[in-house]
Amino acid sequence: xxxxxxxxxxxLGLLRRDxxxxxxxxxxxxxxxxxxxxxxxxxxxxxxxxxxxxxxIGPGVxxxxxxxxxxxxxxxxxxxxxxxGTLEQIALSPEPLWLLAAAKxxxxxxxxxxxxxxxxxxxxxxxxxxxxxxxxxxxxxxxGTPVLSLVGAIGAALTLGVRGGGLLxxxxxxxxxxxxxxxxxxxxxxxxxxxxxAAHLSLLGACLALAAFFAPWAITAALRIALE
Amino acid sequence: xxxxxxxxxxxTFYPLAGQMAPWFAGLAAVLAxxxxxxxxFVAPTDAQQGESYRIIFVHxxxxxxxxxxxVVMAGWAAIGLAFNTRLSHMMAAxxxxxxxxxxxxxxxxxxxxxxxTWGTYWVWDARLTSELVLLFLYLGFLALHAAIDxxxxxxKACAVLALVGVVNVPIIYFSVQWWNTLHQxxxxxVTRAPSMAAAMFAGMLVMVFAFWMYSIAVAxxxxxxxxxxxxxxxxxxxxxRGAPA
Lengths: 228, 245
Description:
Oligomer: heterodimer
Radius of gyration of chain B: 21 Å
Largest sheet of chain B: none
Low-confidence stretches of chain B: 182-190
Largest sheet of chain A: none
Radius of gyration of chain A: 18 Å
Shape of chain A: elongated
């Protein structure tokens, strides 16, 4: 770590490092998107190809798919750094840990969350959603996936190095995802129903503001507990 | 002056918990007997729902207790994190299974009540759904506690989870409420008829206190077990067994 201690440079450096690592391990980074596409393709096979039905369930399926894809990628968020001791060095650095944790979460969102937002319109077309609804879907995912990354990071930090990691993260994190899912899928549904998505998107934005404020604190606390 | 902080040591609280638990258990039994008496013999038959409404005397108290216990648990977790008191964490861990049981019972009795009154065991109503999520939160807490072998780490990690959960509970409640009202319109309303006979209300209140006392008694007994398990290498536990330390 640098001696003159510039927190912003440290955070940006960590962000760049995480992005670079993701680029070097492309299969890992692509897994959430592929999973998202697979889940979205399985539903029509399961419920039948009627366009009316697909349009009706599309928003919910896509949102649940994005949520599960994000959740599956959580295990990688801190685990590798925890195992090789990098996380301990990060925690020992003079820069505030919450900022560095936030940088790692930002990297996680850029690698796992943003690609979901990018492929969502294509999947939405498969479900026959109209163009303006797709715009709302993208907006809701843009606001919602950072919430999923932030809240999920708390669960990932709490379960670091713990038996039964993956399933445990799901058990811990999924109940906390309920508001984001309700408002996110609700926004798309409201647009489909013609009632306007503004209220839902505002509430989702409020969730994001709350999560951005509180989650770094909780993540820091959880990381310090895991590293004790 | 009594030094209350002395009680935060597991060693001093262990015998006190042993003395208090039977009293709370007795109180719970007496209150439950009185409450059930009111429920079955004093409270009148409901004009619309007939006799089936009588499950309210279990359903409403367990629902309240399931929510109340989560807040109490989070409160102990916060105290434990703030003051680093082991006993507070043990208290939170002792409350969690009882809270989860109440949340489950609330759903179970609700289903039994829903069938005769609404004709269905389950609706995706706001209150039912948030109770279900509350049960999931309890299960997450219990699973996390069980998965971490080091008790100190398990305590603290679960404390953070409980606090995150308690911040989330109101958000979840309102999100689910808006989800339901925005989505399907009012299909079935869980709210009771506003006019409630005094005997019904009294019975419900007595049952709430019965379950409350039961929770305290059970939490104390479980707390004693947790203390013994955690402190099994301590000298005073060996002396308790009559073995040399």
